[in-house]
Amino acid sequence: MDGPDSKADGRVPIHVLTGFLGSGKTTLLRHVLADNHLADTAVVINEFGEVGLDHLLVREVAEDVVLLSSGCLCCSVRDDLVSTLAELNGLMRAGEIPAFARVVVETTGMADPAPIMQAILSEQRLIPWFRMGQVITTVDAVNGEQTLTRHREARQQLACADRVILTKADLIDEPECTALLDKLRAKNTSASLKVSRKKQLPAAEILEEVDAQWRRPIPAPLASDDDPIRAPAIPHAPGHDEAIKTFTVQLQQPVEWASFVDWLELLLASRGDAILRVKGLLAVSDDDRPVVVQGVQHVLYPIERLPAWPDDSARPGWIVFIARDLTQRAIENSMRSVYEQSLV
């Protein structure tokens, strides 16, 4: 894999909107589609009827593609998601549909978002034109905790999230809301949290992409100076799937880029079935700028780098692992044995 690229990524971001049945995902999507400031958005959903778009439809602009009153495009999944996205891109570039600046893919309530993310990251028909945006997961404030306890799919959706939106928060009191937010934060330490009440969140905040997500997720404990890595423990959250573990490996030295990439690609190839997500911000030995590293199961995202560190405390970097049936100790041992000699 090539090294970090300093050029701005001009590809269209694809945001994945997921959440369990009844979590308010559809209401949130309607809110986004009705916002005129997001008129240059394309939305891919399973069936129009599920979202209740009749009052927003303007006209059909291509087969299975309609223009909404806000100016957004909306279409249904045809053969598969990759074909749908590739066709949308082709229609836009041919001038047959209005240009769009972002795509929102709404999953079904029982869907695992990881395969969708893999398709966006690895499909050669999409890579030149699209990039991964945010994974946005809705959690119902009233029934969300019970849903997470009972349903593996809901736990998977939460684990994969870049942004968690607590919906229906007006139906519970403030102490309950605070307690639930604390539990969600413990289950996914790297995701940003937002609360949706009767007064909806601004639609732009739902889809925004910010560098703040690359601030170190939790404080690192003290470690000896000669230990190149350290892994703070994440507090246990009641009701969480014990098979899914979240932990942060905090680096104390920059990495040698080629050795690190070789190690991470080997890890994802061999243990990708167990790894839901990898997210990190790293210092590399030959560049002052921080490198963004992300992966989903067997797929490593295209490498990006930020223009500057979000704050000095983030140096020299960290990696968040969200994994099922894979221990923190196994990752630590692997990191030491594979690339410790390359640390500067």
What does this protein look like?
By secondary structure, this protein is an alpha/beta fold. It is 28% helix and 27% strand. It contains ten helices and 16 strands. A nine-stranded mixed β-sheet has the order 3-4-5-2-6-1-7-8-9, with helices on both faces. Strands 10, 11, 12, 13, 14, 15 and 16 form a seven-stranded antiparallel β-sheet that branches. Helix 5 (144-150) crosses helix 6 and helix 9 (257-271) packs across helix 10 (328-339). The longest helix is centred in the last third of the chain and has 15 residues, at 257-271. It is globular and about 55 Å long.
Low-confidence stretches: 1-7, 48-58, 218-226, 230-241
Q: Evaluate the radius of gyration.
A: 20 Å
User: What value does the average pLDDT take?
Assistant: 77
N-to-C series of helices and strands: EHEHEEEHEHEHHEHEHEEHEEEEEH
The fraction of residues assigned to DSSP E strands is 25-35%
For the secondary structure, the number of strands is 16
Q: Main beta sheet: strand number and arrangement?
A: 9 strands, mixed
Strand order of the largest sheet: 3-4-5-2-6-1-7-8-9
The shape, in one word, is: globular
Helix content: 25-40%
Structural class, judged by helices and strands?
alpha/beta
- Helical stretch count? 10
Cα-to-Cα separation, first versus last residue: 21 Å
